[in-house]
Amino acid sequence: MRRTVIRRRVTRMISAFLFQPPLPISPKHQYSLLPLTTTQRFLTASHSFRTLSTKSIPNMQDSASVSYLSQREAAEIDETLMGPLGFSVDQLMELAGLSVATSVAEVYKPSEYSRVLAICGPGNNGGDGLVAARHLHHFGYKPSICYPKRTSKSLYTGLVTQLESLSVPFVSVEDLPEDLSEDFDVIIDAIFGFSFHGAPRPPFDAIIRRLQTLQKRPVIVSVDIPSGWHVEEGDHEGGGIKPDMLVSLTAPKLCAKSFSGPHHFLGGRFVPPSVAEKYKLELPSYPGTSMCVRIGKPPKVDISAMRVNYVSPELLEDQVESDPVLQFRKWFDEAVAAGLRETNAMALSTTNKDRKPSSRMVLLKGFDENGFVWFTNYESKKGSDLSENPFAALLFYWEDMNRQVRIEGPVERISEEESENYYHSRPRGSQIGAIVSKQSSVVPGRHVLYDEYEELTKKYSDGSVIPKPKNWGGFRLKPNLFEFWQGQPSRLHDRLQYSLQEGNPAWIIRRLAP
């Protein structure tokens, strides 16, 4: 029995999620403290979208607690899915291919692993590879396809047509480069699945032998079963591929117990409870709307070797705004438009009277030419530091755009009226939370907070005004220094500093060495 995979109604739902039109953006953001401005509504929407994004980091499941399927069980589950449960082959194939693509994207980022070769066999495993290549194209990769034994079935010819419409190149076995590492960063092994029997025949036997000889690059990602492995006994004869990543589908097969590579993912988020109960399947929970979840412990890494080679547009002096607040607004707008999560999150660094520093993440709640505003408990650690030493530094880091902004300057409390207005614009639960939390103080347990929260919730259940705590309000940092950082290749980053000189209101722009 050939393995299966997903499309019609499910595909329409996936497409609606992945290819929905962009969220509306106000042509001119208003960065005020008023409730539910255009910007705040957009920030809320972008936060929700990012939370549901397939880019979210997958949960990890202990491999010992996950069920493994025999070949017979895998075949029976496919028969059940396609029989009484109403799934079609193309439905299951669409979800499997998407699972493979999202697993690849979790580990091998297109900035460093953009060149992908999908080697596809004649069956359903090959179909999964074709679907994965299409999704990887939309994710920003540059896939190529090696598909030696094409079938005339409409399902497969349709997948080929879809790829050709995207100008994804097809490469014959004869035209594959002698050294695959020169042309490809990732190879997707979609040759044989769990239903394959016997020894591989030409041209796949020679392809598998070539893949066996690869060293560190290109990395190999096997779909469900590493080609050349026995579905239950694994690579018992030593003639199979040794992949860097295995993407098990539906549930891992018994051979996956022998997988020793660094990355094992489970994909195919479509197993109904009735099937899981019948086969006593222990499967991990998928986070958010992610189509993959890591199995087992993450690989050990050499921290000293961890680095990213940034590729970004140049940040040039003659292209930036003369006013750093306007330049910040421009970058902030672009980060919001890109759908980054919590664009307004910033690291706030303070020091006390003894010059001992401390840092924490807070949320920016407004900015203009007068400064940058956030809110907190005045008796918290940061509030105490600022009362002793009213100077601070802010740091915004927008990873997906290779950008960060540093801001320094003196800090003062905002007016009580401003704090009152913002406090009462917050959700009532957040207002009660500000009363309950004696921030930075020691509490005997979480239950203490819950009990007081519940008591106050009942007290103000009539909708009456919730009073702002006297020790709660806003701070404003008045900048005297900005630094805009743009990541560049070979660590030759762009750093433009804006500073003020005493008695001169004009900002001076200087380039700093990276």
Just give the CATH class of the largest domain.
Alpha Beta
How far the N terminus sits from the C terminus, by CA atoms, comes to: 59 Å
- CATH architecture verdict of the largest domain: 3-Layer(aba) Sandwich
Name the average pLDDT.
Answer: 86
What is the molecular shape? globular
CATH 4th-level superfamily of the largest domain: YjeF N-terminal domain
Can you describe this structure?
With 514 residues, the protein is α/β, with parallel strands linked by helices. 30% of the residues lie in helices and 21% in strands. The protein has two domains: 283 residues, YjeF N-terminal domain (Rossmann fold); 160 residues, Pnp Oxidase, Chain A (Roll). The chain is built from 13 helices and 18 strands. Helix 12 crosses helix 13. The longest helix has 19 residues. It is globular, with a radius of gyration of 28 Å. The termini are far apart. The N terminus is likely disordered.
